[in-house]
Each structure stands twice: as structure tokens, then as C-alpha cells.
Write a structure and sequence with these properties.
46% helix; 80 residues; mainly alpha
Length: 80
């Protein structure tokens, strides 16, 4: 789900995951770096929503489609 619903928490939605991803992109990050950081944070209970790698890719596509992130030389950057 892109947005939270009655049965989907905010952290499990792509919108919530997008907020988390944006906090991780203070400097340019590769997709692998973002995935690795998510796995560490999920394991340490710093992020509570269980996500798949496919959801990470969908979230990045979603963030790109609304003009928040861009890809440059194989890394993801925030748009200014």
C-alpha cells in the first residue's frame, strides 16, 4: 500500500517507508547502502515496518515520481 489504511500502519506503507528513506539520504546513497541501513535499523528496532527489497525500489520510484529524489551516477540524492 502506498498510503496507510485501517489495516496497514504508517511504517508498513510506502509513504511511511519513503519518510524513513528520506532521513537516510543526507548524502548520496546507493540502493544497496539504503537497503543495508534499513536492515540494520529493522534488526535494532529503529524502524518497525517490515519491508521487502521490492518495496524499497517502489518507494524510490515513488519518491522520484513526486520529485523528491533523483538518481545521479548510480546513487540516490535528494532534490533541492
Amino acid at each position: 500500500m502506498i498510503i496507510p489504511t485501517k489495516h496497514t500502519s504508517f511504517s508498513e506503507s510506502l509513504l511511511g517507508f519513503g519518510c524513513y528513506i528520506l532521513t537516510q539520504i543526507e548524502s548520496p546513497q546507493s540502493v544497496d547502502d539504503l537497503w543495508g541501513q534499513y536492515q540494520v535499523d529493522y534488526k535494532n528496532k529503529l524502524y518497525f515496518g517490515k519491508q521487502s527489497f521490492d518495496n524499497l525500489l517502489l518507494t524510490i520510484v515513488f519518491l522520484h515520481s513526486i520529485g523528491v529524489v533523483n538518481e545521479q551516477n548510480g546513487v540516490i540524492i535528494k532534490c533541492s
